């Protein structure tokens, strides 16, 4: 009887509160990065001097980028884990490989944001572009390693997680395709033909796909994730 009462207290409409929390959480990280990539004052392919000059000219936008990055670091790993919970039963191996790539990749994002923090702090402190550039060029080599982890982890890992969604059919086909396509679009817009609007679309597709997973979780007959 106590167990029944606890379930009633911690549920809404017969469904566990954690299911609603997860459904709400899922799109936040990708959506934050989508806006971050759109607001970023520089391009990923810019050299250090160009980055420094652009950050100095747009410290307000850079502040927004840092806040969004903070949100992304807090939410991306839990979101990926939540998606893995709904795919691992029918696609265990692919889900495992995807998570082995995504978790370290997303965690490495926090290390990469340190460079943006440095540029923002330098600009706010009144340093010129030359001084900020010298700081960027002398960052610890672990930052370059973190970059490799992030790029491989989030691009390949997201594709694999999207394929797992396709195979398990826990969401509509279009949602799985949105997740699969999101990071190749991002990579194209970040590295090959730099374009912040296309980058927004890429990460936005992942946010939409993850939101669809959240909706699917809420349709499950069980009361919890």
UniProtKB/TrEMBL annotation:
Residue ranges of the TM segments: 20-44, 64-83, 95-114, 144-166, 173-194, 200-218
Transmembrane as UniProt keyword: yes
Domain of life of the native organism: Bacteria
UniProt keyword annotations, A-Z: Membrane, Transmembrane, Transmembrane helix
This protein's name: DUF4386 family protein
Source species taxonomy: Bacteria, Bacillati, Actinomycetota, Actinomycetes, Propionibacteriales
């Amino acid at each position: 009887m106590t167990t029944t009462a606890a379930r009633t207290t911690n549920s809404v409409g017969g469904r566990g509160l954690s299911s609603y929390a997860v459904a709400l959480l899922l799109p936040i990280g990708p959506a934050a990065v989508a806006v971050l990539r759109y607001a970023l004052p520089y391009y990923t392919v810019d050299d250090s001097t160009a980055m420094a000059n652009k950050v100095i000219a747009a410290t307000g936008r850079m502040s927004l980028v840092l806040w969004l990055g903070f949100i992304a670091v807090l939410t991306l790993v839990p979101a990926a884990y939540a998606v893995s919970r709904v795919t691992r039963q029918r696609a265990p191996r692919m889900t495992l490989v995807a998570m082995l790539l995504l978790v370290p990749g997303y965690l490495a994002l926090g290390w990469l944001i340190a460079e943006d923090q440095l540029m923002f702090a330098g600009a706010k402190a009144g340093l010129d572009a030359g001084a900020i550039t010298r700081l960027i060029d002398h960052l610890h080599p672990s930052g370059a390693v973190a970059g490799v982890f992030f790029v491989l982890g989030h691009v390949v890992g997201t594709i694999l997680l999207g394929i797992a969604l396709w195979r398990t059919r826990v969401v509509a086909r279009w949602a799985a395709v949105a997740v699969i396509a999101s990071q190749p679009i991002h990579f194209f817009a970040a590295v090959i033909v730099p374009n912040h609007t296309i980058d927004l679309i890429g990460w936005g597709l992942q946010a939409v796909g993850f939101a669809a997973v959240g909706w699917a979780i809420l349709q499950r007959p069980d009361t919890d994730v």
